[in-house]
Amino acid sequence: MWRVVREASARAPIWMQARGLAAKKSTEPKFTQSAAFQGRGSIRGNPAFKQDYYTSDAYANKKVLSAIGSVLALALYFGWLREPSDLDEIWNTPPHILTSNLERKMIREQIKQAQEKGMDTALLRAQLDYVDVKEEALRIQFEQKKSQEERKRQ
After folding, report:
1. pTM above 0.85?
2. What are phi and psi of 15, to 5 degrees?
3. How many angstroms separate the CA atoms of 126 and 110, rounded?
4. Residues 90-138: pLDDT tens digits?
5. Where are the domains of the chain?
6. How many Cα atoms within 13 Å fall on the side-chain side of residue 34?
């Protein structure tokens, strides 16, 4: 078989022999018939990009409008329609009052537990009285911070 290929090599290129095209003459293809031709009368295949709804401008506009509408709905609800609640009172309460009330509650619970166990509560009652002093000190400290921040703003 190789002998046949070697003998035929003088007549036609090897790639044509391997494909069984030795009997056919090679002709140059026309440029107008190639895939690179984009001129008049060319056959256009499927476009490389087929636009669908999710890549269209209409969808992008609807996404933006939906996001803006959602933010406006939240702002309307929290800014105008919502009624005051307990959380609003907590957020608006000064921090020195919140901390002192929390500490008082914890000490009162400890006193109650100590009384149930029959232990002495004198030290816990002294701590409860000391909470008032700490509250006043914290109030003064927070007022000083507020006044310093107001001076910086002006």
Report:
1. no
2. -65, -30
3. 13
4. 888 888 888 899 999 999 999 999 999 999 999 999 999 999 999 999 8
5. 2-26, 92-153
6. 6
